[in-house]
Write a structure and sequence with these properties.
The protein has 84 residues and is mostly helical. It folds into two domains: 35 residues, no CATH class; 42 residues, no CATH class. 68% of the residues lie in helices and 0% in strands. It is built from four helices and no strands. The chain is flat, with a radius of gyration of 19 Å.
Length: 84
């Protein structure tokens, strides 16, 4: 019987399944930083630029709720620990 050959992505996902929850979160954080570093030279679409402009106007006008990134990250991590 031949073993199925996994793609690099499938192999990575299989390895990630063996990590603890905290290790998975740590990996995800680091991977997101890496991906975002690579995207620095990618131009944004006109739609995204319009959305950014809209949000800047809201921030400057004080009409939107602002949340500290660390609080959002902590809330997200806690929600992932809760059963669905």
């Amino acid at each position: 019987m031949n073993a199925a050959v996994l793609s690099p992505v499938e192999s990575l996902l299989e390895a990630a399944k063996r990590l603890t929850h905290d290790e998975q979160v740590d990996f995800l954080d680091r991977f997101a930083v890496m991906v975002n570093e690579d995207d620095q030279d990618v131009p944004l679409s006109p739609e995204w630029m319009a959305e950014i402009d809209r949000r800047v106007v809201e921030i400057e006008a004080g009409t939107c709720a602002m949340h500290d990134w660390q609080d959002v990250l902590q809330e997200t991590r806690e929600s992932l620990k809760r059963p669905a």
